Amino acid sequence: QVQLVESGGGLVRPGDSVTLSCEASGRDFSFSVIGWFRQAPGKEREFVSVTSWSGEMTRYADSVKDRFLISRDNAKNIVYLQMNNLKLEDTAVYYCAAGTTYRLSGDYGEEDFGSWGQGTRVTVSP
Predict the structure, then answer these.
(1) 8 A C-beta contact, residue 22 and residue 78
(2) Angle, CA of 1, 33 and 94, to the nearest 5°
(3) Are strands 10-12 and 78-83 parallel, antiparallel or unpaired?
(4) 6-53, pLDDT tens digit by residue?
(5) Strand 10-12 vs strand 120-124: parallel, antiparallel, or unpaired?
(6) Contact assessment for residue 124 and residue 94, using Cβ atoms and an 8 Å cutoff
(7) What is the DSSP pairing of strand 92-99 with strand 33-39?
(8) What is the DSSP letter of 1?
(9) Which alpha helices (DSSP H) does the chain contain, by range?
(10) By percentage, how much of the chain surpasses pLDDT 70?
(11) What are the tens digits of pLDDT across the range 63-83?
């Protein structure tokens, strides 16, 4: 079992950058696929990005591709989500989650991840 804690959210302006962190505890972290999801007000939680256990393979939702960058440091048990050129529609609570399967294709859903953090809020406002 992996325990996850997100941090790094806050209030930012359009065009700003912010990096979220997902700190994990538990011996299985290095072998876990880690994903980021977000839930905007009044909307369902949606997939944002995922990294394989090594960090060598990553995937992104079309809405964040070329703006967000996921990375991980297994020595520190941390996964990062660097978010650049933030837009109003990026406002959401961001969650990291741990799973076991990395897929090269096909959609990721919440059912692919068994452990979740409590979330960190990112508000993009002029």
Answers:
(1) yes
(2) 90
(3) unpaired
(4) 999 999 999 999 999 999 988 777 678 999 999 999 999 999 999 998
(5) parallel
(6) no
(7) antiparallel
(8) -
(9) none
(10) 99
(11) 999 999 999 999 999 999 999
Chain center to CA of 63: 14
Q: Is the dihedral of CA 29, 51, 7, 43 positive or negative?
A: negative
The token duo for 75 is 């020595």
Q: What is the pLDDT of residue 1?
A: 76
Token representation of residue 40: 């905007």
In the chain, the N- to C-terminal Cα span, in Å, equals 40
Q: Is residue 97 within 8 Å of residue 108, measured between CB atoms?
A: no
Question: Which residue type does 52 have?
Answer: S
Q: Can you tell me the distance from the alpha carbon of 30 to that of 48, in angstroms, rounded to the nearest whole number?
A: 20
Query: Token pair for residue 86?
Result: 């933030």
